[in-house]
């Protein structure tokens, strides 16, 4: 039997809430790789969970803006100098340069996992200098990768053309769990999970609740946390909207399964959102919960095969109509719920993990 290959995976976010990397690190560890997952320690970080792979947090003095990215990349370079894995896995452009420099200096394998169209996220797309810096990082380092993949087929095609390197698609999906027939929830809970950031349609969703006979649960935090809570108070919607705060990934399904309808809304603020294929979309699907969803290409493609969502623009009136239809139209609801079960047989971690392992075994 050959020596186990070792992998260092690097991200800039808090490991506790990174479902995709928890899943991928576990898959690789379960298939014979020695894995170390490296992320950031924030002031409010919770203790790391127990997994079948090692974890490391890097603490920074700065936690946002250019100074954070500069500090984190310098600290990451210093950390990687003292590590000698067989494979360096950089997640997104914001960890790529340190991995590129060390991997090439040591003649080791470099893997690039792009979770999004980094230079087209709302926080970057309208900031020319910031966008230029990340574009330069990409042009220097991405083509030096030995393997590259991303979260959806359209982005894979875009990146292949952009960087001249073959990108594969590994969907961010949960494991398929065999269950009995999913029953329709008794209440009228409307559920949102994810970051409370610009472009997620949360303002329109909150305003829509004025005309929807249901209760909205919001799981997550972000840049808009305070503003959204103030908006709920201003609109006198405290009785209809509940902020749950951060929920650990392992605890999220218990909340999702209580929902009658879920939400995956996005505004057209950059190509990253436009070509997204969010993990929450598949989490809702696997929970058997019909959703209202952004009317963007990847979601339209899946919905044309398995109708699991009502596709909407991020406009208050459309959101109101879609939510009320799902809450009141039993035929529509049951059709979408049944399709969730069918779709989850196709879009699941068991299928995607086989593709992921094959890619790493080819290195």
Number of beta strands: 13
- Overall SS class: alpha/beta
Q: List low-confidence stretches.
A: none
Major sheet attributes: 7 strands, parallel
- First and last CA, distance: 17 Å
Strand line-up of the largest beta sheet: 3-2-1-4-5-6-7
Mean pLDDT: 94
Q: What is the beta-strand fraction?
A: 15-25%
Shape: globular
Could you name the CATH topology of the largest domain? Rossmann fold
What is the ordering of alpha helices and beta strands?
EHEEHEHEHHEHEEHEHEHEHHEHEHHH
Return the CATH class of the largest domain: Alpha Beta
User: So, the CATH homologous superfamily of the largest domain?
Assistant: Glycogen Phosphorylase B
Please give the domain count.
2
Architecture (CATH level 2) name of the largest domain: 3-Layer(aba) Sandwich
Q: Helix proportion of residues, in percent?
A: 40-55%
Please give the structural blueprint.
Blueprint: E1 6-10, H1 19-30, E2 34-41, E3 54-59, H2 65-81, E4 87-91, H3 96-106, E5 109-114, H4 122-125, H5 128-141, E6 147-150, H6 153-163, E7 167-169, E8 189-193, H7 202-208, E9 215-219, H8 225-234, E10 241-245, H9 252-256, E11 261-264, H10 271-274, H11 279-286, E12 291-294, H12 297-305, E13 309-312, H13 316-328, H14 330-344, H15 349-361
Parallel strand pairs: 1-2, 1-4, 2-3, 4-5, 5-6, 6-7, 8-9, 8-11, 9-10, 11-12, 12-13
Helix pairs in contact: 1-15, 2-3, 3-5, 7-13, 11-14
Structural features, described:
42% of the residues lie in helices and 18% in strands. With 363 residues, the chain is of the alpha/beta class. The chain has two domains: 6-173 and 349-361, Glycogen Phosphorylase B (Rossmann fold), CATH 3.40.50; 189-344, Rossmann fold. The strands form two sheets. The protein has a seven-stranded parallel beta sheet with strand order 3-2-1-4-5-6-7. Strand 12, helix 12 (297-305) and strand 13 (309-312) form a beta-alpha-beta unit.
